Amino acid sequence: MRAAFLLLLAGLVMLSGTTTSRAADAAKIALVIGNARYPDNESVLSDVANDAQDVTEELKRAGFVVDSQSNVTGDAMRRALDRFYARIERGTVALIFFDGFGIQSNRQTYLLPVDAQIWTEPDVSRDGFSLDAVLAEMNTRGAAIKIALIDASRRNPFERRFRRYSAGLAPAIAPNNSLVFYSAALGAVAATGKTDRSLFVAELLREMRAPNISAEQALANTKNGVVAATNREQVPWLSSSLTTEFSFAGAATRPPDDKPLTKPDVQKQEPQKPICEVPQAAPAPTADDLARDPVIADLSRKIASNANDVASRYKRGQVYAIKRAYALAMQDFDAVIRRAPKDAEALNNRCWTRAATGNLQGALADCNLALQIDPGLSDALDSRGLVNLRLGRTTEAIKDYTDAIQRNPHSSSSLFGRGIAARKSGGDGATDIAQAKAMNPDIAKEFAGYGVTECVP
């Protein structure tokens, strides 16, 4: 009886050893997508291509079979995901790295291909790829460990078309045995840089290379490194449900000729600026800049072929306004409102454009009419808050912004505006201003373009 028990115990030990080593011995596959060239964005995401290449090389060194794609359209991204899913076998370690633009809608994070046409909320789920769905499919195909590394917490032009705030990314609903890692906190965005490497990826690769630590610990160390380097201005988000041990690097040492990673110079923190130093607003685009814009060119062709194409004219007006070509935006919004006098969205957009150019009484009339037509239109409340703020009517501005925040708590524009209005009326406003800046690091620069700063006489 004792011999039988010992034999059974030995068998269990052997089985246990097999289970714990399986993750290290399993097939490891990865899909790396770096989307840098979005036609709708004003500039190329200069760090994306290099970061995606660096991640690809590191994953290959760690034993992953990697499919690396850059600047993919929706069709190409769908095909890449299908190839990725098809390679997953039961027990596989499956990893996706996405660098580009992401957006949240209906409490889900969507990864955007370069040709996404986002004008309204429903367009996000139509043209974007749900991260929740990607993780679920990885699990359905039998992946033992699911890893998603997402560097997409950026302010992007799509959000500003149908809501003037940047909501960052939403929490992922991930299956068991998953690691999900975002470059910034939920609902927040990282400051936009113009360097050839990002701090997030530099820290990530450094920790992936460290031997003898788990993947979960490597990502936790990455988070701590980014937090320390940015003085807590950027706080990555990590979610883990791992029950299986897994390490990116294992116990092996690195080749002697391997080049050490260095942090990008851009992320060196400057001393805190005085609170009343006015940020410089971005310059308006030149006529050549607008002529080269592919979205404007496409919309202009549609309008030229059909003068009654109100939808295209409205969209072009939005693009002009976002790019600060306000005179051209006004022409398009005027044309839309002549054809549809009760279009509350168009009236709100014209209100915002008039406010930005200093036509405050005209802006107030547009916002009031928009809110008569649609009293719950949060964007119009936000726009009227800006008008009242510029008119010096701080009590009215605070009320408008508060009403807007009640309908949309994630509006960085409304939070920042309410904070400034509170400060100008003798209050504090610091909490609102800090929260707005955490959600959108460029919000002070945006308001400076409207003639509104944090300085109080």
Automatic annotation (TrEMBL):
Segment forming the signal sequence: 1-23
Keyword Signal: yes
Gene3D superfamilies found in the cross-reference section: 3.40.50.1460, Tetratricopeptide repeat domain
Residue ranges, annotated region (Disordered): 250-274
UniProt feature, compositional bias: Basic and acidic residues: 255-271
Keyword Hydrolase assigned: no
GO biological processes: proteolysis
Sequence ranges assigned to domain Caspase family p20 in this UniProt record: 26-98
An MF annotation (GO) of this entry: cysteine-type endopeptidase activity
TPR repeats: 378-411
Key words, A-Z: Signal, TPR repeat
PROSITE patterns, A to Z: CASPASE_P20, TPR
InterPro entries per UniProt: Caspase-like_dom_sf, Caspase-related_regulators, Pept_C14_caspase, Pept_C14_p20, TPR-like_helical_dom_sf, TPR_rpt
Protein name listed in UniProt: Putative caspase-like protein
Naturally occurring in which organism (per UniProt): Bradyrhizobium daqingense
